[in-house]
Specification:
This protein is of the alpha+beta class and about 270 residues long. About 35% of the residues lie in helices and about 30% in strands. The protein starts with 10 loop residues before the first helix and ends with a helix. It holds the Pfam family Inositol_P.
Amino acid sequence: MTVSPTATDHADDLALALRLADAADAQSLPRFDAADLQVSLKADRSHVTDADLATERAIRTLLAEERPRDGIFGEEFGAEGDTHRQWIIDPIDGTANFLRGVPLWGTMIALAIDGIPQVSVVSMPALGRRWWAATSHGAWTATPQGDRRLQVSTVDALEDASVSFQSIGQWADAGRLPELMAVADAVWRDRAYGDVYSYMLLAEGRIDMVAEFDVKEYDIAAAVPIVREAGGRMTAFDGTETLSALSTLATNGALHAPFLSLFRAARRP
């Protein structure tokens, strides 16, 4: 999956994506912090709850009714149908938070056309927050005062940057601890906000870089249009224009090259 968009109109697709988010919230939020939440382990030893499954089923049902010719790729039930127009779904990003009653989780919905995410919605109903974007339509979030257009920060120096590194274990497993230590030494502030919320903070201009590893396309596809339309940039960790490399680097754009240079320097013997 590449990350370069093409200009087109996606108003109808965005309206559908917002309805899909409504359907997802109706399934996930009532199960959040439920005493009878059902949790099991998948083959990869990650957790899945009854809410993950019900949420993805609800999205698939609505897509079958409204876009029967479109394909879908979801975390819980895999891929089916056309890949020219493919909805990429993570029903609950942050399942570990969800099952522990931590409200930092959300549904990620993206429409990719020929492999490029063009439309997306991220909904975090436990926080009462939602973000959305479409190519040439900008990136937006809802506020009590009305919808607000998103814009990444203008920070252009590493020493002024605030970043989210997701988790130490993730970087260690990827063999990237030298780069993480270099980041911690170079920036103003480092925190592990985690999962999709980090990308939304980036798009809002509240932090300036997010990087993570061992990610699938459904973990990050919905973040791409939102970050991009807010003025930021997303690539693989090495800067290549793909999000199929099990890693991602998202920045406010101005800091993308400085972070890539920092990472390269940290890897030198």
